[in-house]
Design brief:
Blueprint (H helix, E strand, L loop, with lengths): L1 H18 L12 H14 L1 H11 L4 H12 L2 H22 L8 H14 L7 H13 L6 H18 L11
Helix pairs in contact: 2-3, 6-7
Length: 174
């Protein structure tokens, strides 16, 4: 997590500056070590490079930390991890509390679940849909009938429409 890493790095720089005899931070948020380096980097390295080095050595702003945290929340990898956790929790709950599903081997339940995921990924994360479907699939020994597939596809299409509402009708330009 970048924001937490940045906060720890900022604290480490402040502690290092204090150990060198300077104040922990100044009004600009830079310690004496960073200020001393910036005094030399500008003239020696040159305008833009010196400023880049100075900004690399200074602590990130609150806005930067917030924007990085928000971008991590909407990261597809983060979404996939949340879906994975929810799926594991759902299957674990089915295996421990459902009177029908709990009688089956966890590998059979996982196999049946994977069949549904391949046909309907949105429906597969809905516990209300999956409980009944898994019960039926397990009792039919993982054989899905055409009617069930048709119903599952309709459910998936409905969930897709909820996720992506149709564009608003617009009046023609005059």
């Amino acid at each position: 997590m970048k924001p937490l890493d940045s906060l720890f790095e900022k604290k480490a720089v402040e502690l290092g500056d204090a150990a060198l005899g300077g104040a922990a931070s100044t009004a600009t948020g830079r310690g004496p070590l960073t200020s001393a380096l910036s005094m030399f980097t500008g003239p020696i390295v040159g305008g833009t490079m010196g400023k880049g080095l100075t900004s690399a050595l200074s602590a990130p702003s609150d806005e930067t930390i917030q924007s990085e945290a928000v971008s991590e929340l909407f990261d597809p990898g983060h979404e996939a991890e949340i879906t994975k956790i929810k799926t594991q929790a759902m299957l674990s709950e089915f295996l421990s509390t459902d009177p029908v599903i709990s009688t089956y081997d966890p590998e059979e339940v996982t196999s049946a679940y994977n069949q549904v995921v391949s046909l309907a990924p949105r429906a597969s994360i809905q516990p209300a849909v999956m409980r009944g479907l898994l019960r039926k699939l397990l009792q039919q020994q993982d054989a899905m009938e055409a009617f069930d597939v048709d119903q599952l596809v309709k459910i998936e299409q409905g969930l897709k429409n909820v996720d992506q509402p149709p564009p608003k009708l617009m009046a023609p330009e005059v």
